[in-house]
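Handoff note, outgoing to incoming analyst
You'll be picking up this chain. Sequence as last confirmed:
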Amino acid sequence: MVNFLAAAASPRSADIAIDLGTANTLVIERGSGVIFNEPSLCCFSGASTRPALFAAGNEANAMLDRVARPLRIARPLRGGVLSDMDAARELLRFAARRARGAWRPGPWRLRALIGVPADATQAEQRALLTAAHDAGLPHARLLAEPLMAAIGAGLAIDEARGRMVVDCGAGTTEVAVISLGGICLSNTARIGGETLDMALIDYLHLKHRFQIGFATAERMKLELAGLLASEGGLDATLAINGKNLATCLPATLTLPVSDLVNVYEKHLTQIVDAIRSALRRASPELSKDIFEDGITLTGGAAMTGLLGQRIAEMTGLRAEIADGPLDCVARGLGNIMDAGR
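Most recent structure output, in case you need it:
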């Protein structure tokens, strides 16, 4: 159990806080706020055992699906799990250099707080700490992301009352019940915004012989969510630019939104199933608290409002979107860092 009060009591706990996400990485510096918020992407040059970093963040994102050898794009995390140590090390180093304008030489090193999934194994935690150490952050500490999301959402987590938080990230969806500054129970589903992107790509490929990239799938997902949340959205159409696999030529595919509803609904149902699984494990008193207070949604998938509607329909519980849901984990880490002054 990660305890908020114990972490806050640690003197001068950190200089920076890092939310290393599957889609984006945020860095907060003590006294300066957010100093880095860019995609979690690296572009490497060369095919050696230790390739050189060519670009990272926004610059690497502009190169996605557009690079030629010897360049390659790498993501530090896949499905919320560290999958590329080189990319994690270089992205952490690249992002941390924004702190105070430059990376300081000599024995002085930044002390960092880094968010980690609540169900991360010991091996996964050691791998992340190793990447941070190699990036010049030898004093990094890991804190559970659902707990940080609850703090960032402004929940009074130190009370003897159960609070359910659902953090919908790009790689994972984490469900946690929090009370007295710790996580009482949690459940993680390896689904997120990235999973929905892949589902849309597969649907167009298999059903319409049409191919799109991840950047187009991301834009399509956001536009689709907006249409589904609006009145009369099911009657609208969506124009998608990509490649016609029958002719192997660039083309535009226009589809009615109603054709894509099943893909989106299947994704939302999987998230609600993870929530229902956690609710089944909650004690009677925790269940009572959650019934009275509802569920707090954080992360990118919470922003459309569709998830809240499905939760209400399938569980009977009220679900509310936190203010600034994308930044809740980073804000929570920042609050812990500030409390350690």
